[in-house]
Amino acid sequence: MRFTSFDDLLAKGKALISKGPLALIFVEDEVEINTTLRHHVDLGFDQVIAFMPKSFKMAYDVSEDVIRVDCEHTSGQPMIDMVNKVAKHAPGVWLYYCFNAEYLLFPFCETRTIGEMLAFHTEERRSSMLTYVVDLYADDLREHQNAVSIENALLDKTGYYALGRQDPDNHDHPKDRQLNFYGGLRWRFEEHIPQVRRKIDRISIFKATEEVEMRPDFTLTDEEMNTFSCQWHNNLTASVCSFRTAKALKTNPGSTFDIPSFKWHNSVPFEWHSRQLLDLGLMEPGQWF
After folding, report:
1. In 3-state terms, what secondary structure has residue 260?
2. CB of 139 within 8 A of CB of 282?
3. Same domain for 258 and 144?
């Protein structure tokens, strides 16, 4: 199914976004469009919606399972606005968003669906889920000049850390259970990354409401929904495994010539399995076994 614009989706496709979980995939360029969409279809989302420029191509088999929305601006504030508008039109529906060349993995995703995970998360009285954006990068930048390689992807096995978010008034506040997370390529090549974009945490999954909106830093206007845990115990977290930072660093003229390789002594092959991310501490199952 294809819609000619975002407004066309809201006008004619409201029934399609009234049941979730929904995956909203924002396609910024033509890199790994089909693998991104297939991956999220396989996770069990009720609908996968791809927002992408009209000129971009999609494989026929993918088009059978994905709703396509023609859209020329799919990053920055236009992307934030579209997520918020979908949320207002689909209250109570679980939403997930990411960009092309990004792949959601959650605990036990090889044998359990996204719906099963979110059913458990709902029973924990949680309406959002913290995700870590884990940088992936090609092992050989001479062979893969845009730093993207599904077959030969690496990630950092260490170098991640967190800093607390301060409540300036020292009140008992949800910020006590919020952290800013750092690491990966944004940490190792921070001289090329603006400070406001160095965090690797996102609230990538949340239950839509008419009142709560997503902000440009991928947090929500309800501070409780930005927490990594409830008041009683730690909750599920997930990872968005992403080539986006590596791709940007290698295609940006201001940084590409300073980076002959992303490999370092803490690089390891990415196994495309949730167990690796659990072992590295890049997601946790909480009370879900």
Report:
1. coil
2. no
3. yes
DSSP H or E run through 128: strand 128-135
SS3 state at 259: coil
Residue 32 near residue 150 (C-beta atoms within 8 A):
yes
- Both 67 and 201 in one domain: the answer is no
With tokens 């309800």, the residue in question is 222
Which range marks the domain in which residue 272 is found? Answer: 102-289
Threshold 0.85, pTM exceeds: yes
Residues 36 and 154 in one domain: no
**H or E element in which residue 163 lies:** strand 161-164
Q: Please report which confidence band the pLDDT of residue 286 belongs to, taking 50, 70 and 90 as the band edges.
A: confident
The pLDDT tens digits of the residues spanning 76-89 come to 999 999 999 999 99
Phi-psi label, residue 66: left if phi above 0, alpha if psi -120 to 50, beta otherwise: beta
Last residue of a domain, one of 84, 100, 116: 100
Confidence of residue 14 (pLDDT cuts 50, 70, 90): confident
CA distance 53 to 209: 28
Peptide bond into 78 cis (omega under 30): no
What single DSSP character describes residue 112? S
State the burial class of residue 115 (Cβ atoms within 10 Å of its Cβ: 0-12, 13-18, 19+).
Answer: middle
Q: Are the C-beta atoms of 214 and 83 separated by less than 8 Å?
A: yes
* Domain tally, the chain: 2
Those residues with Cβ within 8 angstroms of residue 38's Cβ, 6 or more apart along the chain or in another chain: 62
Q: 132 forms bridges with which residues in the sheet?
A: 201, 239
Please indicate, yes or no, whether residues 137 and 239 belong to a single structural domain of this protein.
yes
- Strand 137-138: give its sheet, edge to edge: 137-138, 153-156, 267-269
Segment 164-206, tens digit of pLDDT: 876 655 455 556 788 889 999 999 999 999 998 999 999 999 9
Within a 10 A sphere around the Cβ of 42, how many other Cβ atoms?
13
Determine contact, residues 50/66, Cβ cutoff 8 Å.
Answer: yes
